[in-house]
Each structure stands twice: as C-alpha cells, then as structure tokens.
C-alpha cells in the first residue's frame, strides 16, 4: 500500500518508516545538522539512547544487534559524527553485524565543493564505503525510502554488514514526497538440492567428521546440534560461533582453532562441514592452514566460497535453511564416524596439559566467573588477555551469550556494546569484561548505563599495563616501551558514575563479587587485581 507523508519533512517521515521496519531503538547524538531527524523522533514512541561519543553509539548498536539479531540503528551528524563512528562500523563490517548508520551531509549544492562549510569532509560517502557493505547518498526525498528498502533487504538476504545512508541537510528538511511504504525484505537464499545431496553423501561416509560453526551459523543452531548428534561429529566453533552447539556438549571442543593441537585435528579430519565462517586469519591466527579432507562450505556470502580454501561442495545459501535441508538429507541411522566424546575430551585435555602458567591462572579466573554468574548471562568482552583466554575456555550453552570484537579487534568495545546488548537481552544478566587500558577508550559511557538505570556489571581485568603488547615485545625481543600507563583509581571512578564497586584479589573473591553484583541489580563494577592472583 502506498504511504505518503504530505506536510511532513523527510526527517519526520524517515523515523516513521524506520518504525515500520520494526526499529524501536535509536542510538545517536543530536546536532545542528541532523536536528530534523530528532523532530521525527519527538513523540514517536521510539527509544532514543544518548551516548557520550559516536564511537559509543556504534558499539551500542553493535551489541544490540548481536543480542537481538535485529539491525542496530544510529543517527550521526556530518563530518566528525561519521569519522567518530567509523571504528564501530569497521568492527561490524568485519564481524558481519547488521548496523544502519544514518548521517546528515552538507547541502546538495555543497557536496565535494570545498567551501569551508561546518563539518565539511571531502567525500563523506567514500569514507563510509571503506567500512560498510552499502554506502549511499539521498539526493532527493524520494531516494530515502528506496535506500532504506535496499538496506533492510540486504540485512536479510546477503551477508549482514553495516549500511550507511547520508542525507543532505536540505533534503532532510524538504517535504517527504513519493511513496514511503516499507519495502519487502526478500526471501533468504535457498540451497541447491544437488549440492545438499552431495554434502550429505560425504558426511554420511566420513570416519572423522568435523563441524566448524562460525558467526553465520547462529541461526542454524538447532539443526547443527542435531547433525552433530546424528553423525557423531566433533564440533569446533569459531569465537563468533560460540554456543551454536553448547560448549559443554560431549562432542564440542570449544573455540580452540588457534591452538596447535586443534590445527592438527583439523588437518586429520576426512570431511569438514564449515558453516557461516570465513576460515580467517583471526580464527587460526595464521594466514592459512592446510585442509586435507573434503571441505563442505555453507555461506550466504558467495565470495567466501571462491576464496583460497574454496570448497569441494560449496553451498551459497542462508545457513539455517541449508542446515535444515542437510539434516533432512542425512540417513536417520547416522554415519560411519569413528569419533566420540572420548576424542573430544582427549583433545581438550591435551590443550590444558600443555598451556603456560599464565593461561592456567586465567583458566581459574574464568572458572570463578562462570561459577558466580547465571547460565543465561551475556558476556561482552574487549580485546584483553582475559577475554582471549575466555574465547577458548569460558563455556556458554547458547549463541549470542559471548560477544567479542574478533575480526577488526578494536579496543573500547566491551562497555558500550554491553549497554546495547542489555537493551536487547531483556532480563538476562549482561556483563562487560574489559582490560584496564582498553576500558579507558570508552569509559565515559558508564554515564549511559547509569542514566538508563541498567542492571549491568562491568568486570575490569587489571593487569596494570598493556600485557598482550608486552608479551609480544618479549617474543620479538623488543624492550618494553609505552606499556605501563598510570591508571585512574577505578573505585573512585566507578563511584563518580554511580556504580557500586568491589575489588576481587582472589579466585574466591571473583565468584563472590560477580554473584553479589548481579544480584544487587543496577550498575555494578568489579575490579579483578590480576597482579595478585597466582
């Protein structure tokens, strides 16, 4: 049905159209260039979250999207608004997170003219294009609904990367002419039946089957669990795929692909089913590893099916639909696997037996955290050594319960992303895990959690320096430089932002502190003194 908005501005009509697409939350900062969007938000019934920096807005939208599966939506201003949010856009692009950024731009007549206008940037759309799957300019009111339809269709039918739409100031304030109805988002792509049949044949005959579940497999969790059991296949998720098959499942070995013994196990598999994963450097921490067995790949991104790994069977389709079709094609009686729970347990034990003392300490910290937190807790982590260990060691039973900025690897992610995740996770406890240095990138967003009265717990791993960088310098025989900054008094900092505070300097304290923090409700801060744990 055609919907018109006679007498309303583009900014007003755009907000109403976003609501028609199911958007209920906007992360953004009003400014003189995008105030027309806020005219539309006024009395719209939508929830607007005011971050303290556009970087915070982007990470909040990322966390919201990962928690809900819905696109996270941001409003930014011309120039610095975009450049500030480009780091979160890069993270979302790398990790296939659906995010929509709507920005103002200079008047149409001023675009690219170099006239020294406020917030001017040489080519704003081109800058955004480097970190998005779609970047477009609306030169006229009727362009806006068409571009929104393209963005939302892309989130559903292609690899869900962020989209960017810029609207010049004069277009934002113009009358909303044209059809402003929500467009059809399209059907998810279905697999080729012949490819499904070939994949089922290979898997049914495999003696050492392995399933690698990536972030693109989140919507295929139920089917992959059934395939795991039917085939007696070992499951090795990527970090983004944690929980697709529960980490405590007898056949799951966890996100251990970067470890030497795990790579050897991958090499020895005779058939590998890789679902929704790039098989990237940040999965293996090597540019490339040899895969000797037959490789079956399911991915919505057809470019991935033609990369260096390729695939003996390449299935370009939505993971959920393809996995369900594959399950239906497999024999009811299972396959010929010679693997079982004892093989998974042996691999995990081998890794534990060969780990360094520092990782053993982190294993104990993570076990203490797990003991103190409810099973349904969502953990949002930063680039910090505790989280790196947690990628492999912290068990979760469902997808969307462990979020980590794996691909782009930006610092400052955990706190704002946890705020966004909490908005999307309902009653589930949400915990942000950050290191003492990276936390300071976005610590100002503590104010947002307080403002929203969120029951959110921040767990700060204080190693008193840039520990991962120092370790790397040691490996490369570089003397330590610029790795020991002076930290603030985190207790006073937490108090200044209205957070409850506890210090944990023993493993027992960690369990007690996080249990009490979650039970207390409201914004809570737990500092773990990593230098005191042995």
What does this structure look like?
This protein has 534 residues and is of the alpha/beta class. The chain folds into 3 domains: 5-176, Rossmann fold, CATH 3.40.50; 193-346, TPP-binding domain (Rossmann fold), CATH 3.40.50; 355-532, Rossmann fold (3-Layer(aba) Sandwich), CATH 3.40.50.970. The chain is built from 20 helices and 19 strands. It has helices at residues 10-20, 35-41, 54-68, 80-94, 124-129, 143-157, 169-172, 193-204, 221-231, 260-268, 281-284, 319-329, 341-353, 357-372, 385-393, 414-425, 446-451, 467-475, 490-496, 507-520, and strands at residues 5-9, 25-28, 47-49, 72-76, 99-105, 134-137, 163-168, 175-176, 209-213, 234-235, 271-275, 294-299, 313-316, 378-381, 402-403, 430-435, 456-462, 500-504, 524-529. Strands 3-2-4-5-7-6 form a 6-stranded parallel beta sheet, sandwiched between helices. A 6-stranded parallel beta sheet has the order 15-14-16-17-19-18, with helices on both faces. The protein has a 5-stranded parallel beta sheet with strand order 10-9-11-12-13. Strand 9, helix 9 and strand 10 form a beta-alpha-beta unit. Helix 3 packs across helix 16 (414-425). The longest helix is centred in the C-terminal third of the chain and has 16 residues, at 357-372. The chain is globular. The model has no long low-confidence stretch (mean pLDDT 94).
